[in-house]
Design goal:
heterodimer, A: about 150 residues, alpha+beta, Ubiquitin-like (UB roll), DNA polymerase, domain 1, 2 domains, globular, B: about 775 residues, Aldehyde Oxidoreductase, domain 3, Aldehyde Oxidoreductase, domain 4, seven-stranded mixed β-sheet, five-stranded mixed β-sheet
């Protein structure tokens, strides 16, 4: 099937297998490997991207379902090299170790802050429960998200 | 030095590529002409393979080749176990890369399909028809040793893989003379490490050169090359292993797995690049598991509370085959550390390694030491109840007094340094232990159940002296090496043999190097993970990277600095003995204005226009560091929990981790290691646990079914520390990668049992899920 999607501001038109997962389309067809695959049951959130303003788990979405949509992956968060405050906060607060869950965490955190610019620690923790990190124990991820929210408010 | 970057919590230099999606993990590698492999795995825990029909799969769209054990047999050598402890009658059973006649666990590889795309390869797996004759299977390590249990390997009677004993002091006499003996049976449930990056391999064989390049999700690429050479027969110098970006490991990426060798085999057969990446569910089956002990443990003590002995009989599950380091985990890394931080005159461990029809077991964060710490601390809490004393005072009474350079414990090992009581006092003061006990009493009066767990631990890490490695059957050395190279512009690269995969050593090693050389930290770069440009190293595990690899780096830097000093003396026309170094500069004693920077010496050494007689050009050095002993970090952790007696739910209210790993190179990174380790330990206490059914079917085979800790399940923890340097390490440092997991499981467990004691609950098998806690409360109340 033919699909047209805009990814990180760039329009793409591609012929895809109807069963192709969006995450494989992004990684294999477009070469955007910053989006990761951490599980196969829609549990871990490593593959989270933004589609038409909302976060989706791109392993649980077919490429054809993205027809006509605008997608932002981690590569599109700081296209000109200037880090988003969320990226900056993850860096400042040691919000990552191996970095494998980080793309999904950052995209999720960006939406979380958009929806709730002044979240409590508990709200951040609840907001991240669809993203699994095995390295950090989440403590510095939560700290990063709170710091990013504060930076965006000021 | 006027300023030191050692000790500063600078942010990590790894992060920019990781927060922008710019890092290249193994599954991100795309090579021209690359094919994709998918592996067919046994659905049965134990079965005879009568026949395999691959005809339909071979004809499927996009399929390039299908291979079975008949193809790999005799081409790939068996997957080796590299840790065979001596004097324990170990059965190093054959582990074929692809099972040919018998499958021994659900997940054992039986065939591989190579196709143009991953989707086509997975489609074709469905078309392979295997005729299995299902055999009886056994899951529990204790059951596997009972008479009549299904036999898994012909050459391992009773499924016994080994019987290893560590005994020091007169344990029998201590028990015979004891005033008090407490006992328990502990289930150290099986865990699944679940590093977020699934395992993956990209093999690129070039037939014309006879060379293999293998991208591998490994914690130890040099070991992959070494063992990969033995399995494939490719000479070691013609194998390049790349593991520069690895998404967590926690022990699960130490082993030499069959899958990476199967992928290499496919590439060699087809003379084209082949990628294999595990799905997560495949990883649950085919990536090692951890723990899996059934332990019968007992402690002897005097009426006054002096602990005199610990004795155990442990059935340690090995799974269906011996994984690379599997046998070393419940033996060397477990049975030798039964004293913990306490002065205990006699310890004895009888460890039975046992085969079962399950995924092989190997090191998982802490690897043997969480299990040891658990049984010691569990027994002390039982002893405190038996004696009617405060569990903290009982611990304090038995702590080893301060020692700065060596303390022998009953098992025969020698701790390096320790000062346990100040950290215990610091943590107790921080939480106000007495106030917590009062609060607990008040809450109990109104029917609320709060519990307090206090753990003191000492652990063995920083593996380790190579001579000891050889003596305990480890099939390699445990030294590390580093090369430090100044470039002509005065910038520096260091090439290291260890393989960080999330721990941040690109940053901490840069801090070590910058201080040693007196250069700006931004002027040094750390290269790791590629066997083609890094010196030999044994890898990142056992909390050894900074301890052993960091020391090698410091020693190499010191050699470089000395050469630069000699060159400076020559150029300053001064006697070598008169030239001193401070803060990146060499100067003539008494004339600080006459100086040369180390960067100037780098330029002059590289251009080599004017060198002293006999000096080689260039400014670089390599160093090999073989530690004289292990290191022994220690600490005190406290957990405060509340248990809802109506539904069994456990809530962690507060957690304080006090750890001493000697001088901290980067406290921010140290804290990050503690956070991660502690939460993994909480996972074991409260949520995580493998469940097999009686037929060896993995019921917890996905992230939906296996409960990993998530962000909303607990609060922040608090971190405290003291600094007790290791006397033998050039940097004084001790490991911190595993302490969290070593201490936190039993701390939370003891807190929960402490909460429930008034309800008649004395013990519950982990994980302490609400259902199990609720059931225990019901039983405790006799209803």
């Amino acid at each position: 099937m033919n699909i047209q999607v805009t990814v990180n501001g760039k329009a793409h038109e591609k012929e895809v297998d109807p069963r192709l997962l969006l995450v494989h389309f992004l990684r294999d067809d477009l070469g955007l490997t910053g989006t990761k695959i951490g599980c196969d049951t829609s549990q871990c959130g490593a593959c989270v991207v933004k589609m038409d303003g909302k976060t989706v788990k791109s392993c649980t979405c077919l490429a054809v379902q993205a027809e006509g949509s605008e997608i932002t992956t981690i590569e599109g968060v700081a296209p000109d090299g200037e880090l988003d405050p969320v990226q900056e906060a993850f860096w400042d607060n040691h919000g990552l170790q191996c970095g494998y869950c980080t793309a999904g965490m950052i995209i999720t955190a960006m939406e979380l802050i958009e929806k709730n610019p002044d979240p409590s620690e508990e709200q951040v923790r609840q907001g991240l429960k669809g993203n699994i990190c095995r390295c950090t124990g989440y403590q510095n991820i939560v700290k990063s998200v709170l710091a990013a929210a504060e930076a965006k408010r000021s | 030095m006027t300023t030191r970057i050692f000790g500063s919590g600078i942010r990590r230099r790894e992060d920019p590529r990781l927060i922008t999606g710019g890092a290249t993990f193994t599954d991100d590698v795309q090579l021209p002409g690359m094919a994709h492999a998918a592996i067919l795995r046994s659905p049965h825990a134990h079965a005879k393979i009568n026949s395999i029909d691959t005809a339909a799969a071979s004809e499927a769209p996009g399929v390039v080749a299908v291979y079975t054990g008949a193809d790999t047999d005799g081409v790939l050598n068996p997957i080796p176990c590299a840790w065979l402890p001596p004097d324990c009658d170990i059965k190093a059973v054959a582990h074929p890369a692809i099972a040919k006649d018998v499958v021994r666990y659900q997940g054992d590889a039986v065939a591989v399909v190579v196709a143009e795309t991953r989707y086509q390869a997975e489609d074709a797996l469905e078309l392979i028809n295997v005729d299995y004759e299902v055999l009886p299977s056994v899951v529990s390590p204790e059951a596997a040793m009972q008479p009549g249990a299904p036999q898994i390997h012909e050459d391992a009677p009773n499924n016994q893989a080994f019987h290893w004993i560590a005994a020091g002091g007169d344990t029998d006499a201590a028990f015979a003379d004891a005033d008090v003996i407490v006992k328990d049976t502990i289930l150290q449930q099986r865990l699944i490490p679940n590093a977020m990056e699934p395992r993956s391999a990209v093999a690129n064989w070039t037939r014309s050169m006879g060379e293999l390049t293998l991208w591998s999700t490994s914690q130890n690429p040099h070991i992959v090359r070494f063992l990969g050479s033995l399995v494939t027969g490719i000479p070691e110098h013609k194998i390049r292993v790349i593991a520069t970006e690895v998404g967590g490991g926690f022990g699960s990426k130490i082993p030499m797995y069959a899958d990476e060798m199967i992928t290499s085999f496919c590439s060699m057969q087809l003379n084209r690049p082949v990628k294999w990446t595990a799905t997560r569910s495949e990883g649950f089956l085919a990536t090692i598991h951890g723990r899996d002990h059934i332990e019968h443990v007992e402690m002897a003590a005097t009426r006054e509370g002096k602990i005199t002995a610990i004795r155990t009989v442990v059935y340690a599950g090995m799974g269906a085959y011996l994984s690379t380091a599997g046998p070393g985990v419940p033996t060397i890394l477990h049975g030798l550390i039964y004293s913990g931080p306490y002065d205990i005159g006699a310890t004895r461990a009888d460890i039975y390694g046992v085969f079962s029809n399950t995924t092989p077991v190997d090191a998982y964060r802490g690897a043997g030491r969480p299990e040891a710490t658990f049984l010691i601390e569990r027994l002390i809490d039982l002893l405190a109840v038996e004696l009617g004393t405060d569990p903290v005072e009982l611990r304090r009474k038995n702590l080893i007094p301060k020692f700065e350079d060596g303390h022998d414990v009953a098992s025969g090992i020698t701790y390096d340094s320790g000062d346990y009581e100040p950290l215990l006092n610091m943590v107790l003061g921080h939480v106000d232990y007495q106030a917590l006990r009062q609060e607990q009493a008040r809450m109990r009066e109104r029917g609320a159940y709060m519990g307090i767990g206090v753990t003191c631990y000492a652990e063995i890490c920083g593996l380790g002296p190579s001579q000891v490695a050889g003596a305990v059957g480890f099939g390699g050395g445990l030294w590390e090496s580093a090369i430090v190279r100044f470039h002509p512009t005065g910038k520096v690269n260091a090439y290291i043999g260890t393989a960080p995969h999330g721990q941040g050593e690109e940053t901490t090693f840069a801090q070590i190097l910058a201080d040693e050389l007196g250069v700006d930290v931004d002027d040094v770069g750390i290269i790791h993970g590629d066997t083609s440009n890094t010196p030999m190293g044994w890898g990142t595990y056992g909390s050894r990277t900074t301890v052993v690899g960091g020391a090698a780096l410091a020693l190499a830097a010191r050699k470089v600095k000395e050469k630069a000093r000699l060159l400076a003396a020559h150029l300053l026309e001064a006697a070598e003995a008169d030239v001193e170094y401070e803060d990146g500069k060499f100067f003539v004693k008494g004339s600080p204005d006459q100086s040369k920077t180390i960067q100037e010496m780098a330029t002059m050494a590289n251009v080599a226009w004017n060198l002293p007689e006999g000096m080689e050009p260039g400014l670089e050095a390599s160093a090999f560091y073989d530690p004289p002993n292990f290191v022994y970090p220690f600490g005190t952790h406290v957990a405060v929990v509340e248990v809802d007696k109506d539904n069994g739910n456990v809530v962690i209210k507060r957690y304080v981790a006090g750890d001493d790993c000697g001088p901290q190179i980067n406290p921010m990174i140290v804290e990050g290691q503690i956070h991660g380790g502690v939460v993994q330990g909480w996972g074991q206490a409260l949520w995580e646990g493998v469940v097999y059914d009686d037929n060896g079917q993995l019921l917890t085979g996905s992230m939906t079914d296996y409960a990993l800790p998530r962000a909303h399940m607990f609060p922040d923890m608090e971190i405290l520390s003291t600094v007790t340097p290791s006397p033998h390490n050039p940097l004084g440092v001790k490991g911190i990668g595993e302490t969290g997991a070593i201490a936190s499981t039993v701390t939370v467990y003891n807190a929960v049992i402490d909460a429930l004691r008034p309800l008649g609950v004395t013990g519950i098998d982990m994980p302490l899920t609400p259902e199990k806690v609720w059931q225990a409360i019901r039983q405790g109340q006799g209803s």
